[in-house]
Design a protein that fits this description.
By secondary structure, this protein is α/β, with parallel strands linked by helices. Helices cover about 40% and strands about 20% of the residues. It has helices at about 10-20, 40-45, 60-70, 90-100; strands at about 25-30, 55-60, 80-85. It has a three-stranded parallel beta sheet, with helices on both faces.
């Protein structure tokens, strides 16, 4: 069974994460969000000892996204990659397939 939860912003996402049992295997997180941005969320995921995988998404500059991926990929969070918006179905399927094969 697959459960999917959505949040309007990072603060709401962290509240949902606190209520989830079991913890999710995968989180998709926009880098640029109101309240808390994606980098703040990654820090919070480290504090929450999140053991799943993360895909960062954004419509920002691809070069900046690569830098942000390097900053967040500190070994404490498994970052599957950075995907540009609009996130197409194939890109998401490839990321989920990579998660399933680990």
């Amino acid at each position: 069974m697959t459960d999917i939860a959505f949040a309007a912003d990072g603060v709401a996402g962290l509240k949902i994460l606190d209520l989830m049992e079991p913890r999710p295997d995968l989180i998709l997180c926009d880098i640029f969000m109101p309240e808390k941005d994606g980098i703040e969320i990654v820090s919070a995921l480290v504090e929450h000892k999140f053991a799943g995988s993360l895909i960062l998404i954004s419509s920002g500059d691809p070069a900046m996204l690569k830098i942000r991926q390097l900053l967040t990929n500190n070994g404490k969070i498994h970052v599957l990659g950075v995907r540009m918006k609009p996130l197409n179905e194939q890109a998401l399927a490839n990321a989920v397939e990579a998660l399933q094969s680990k």
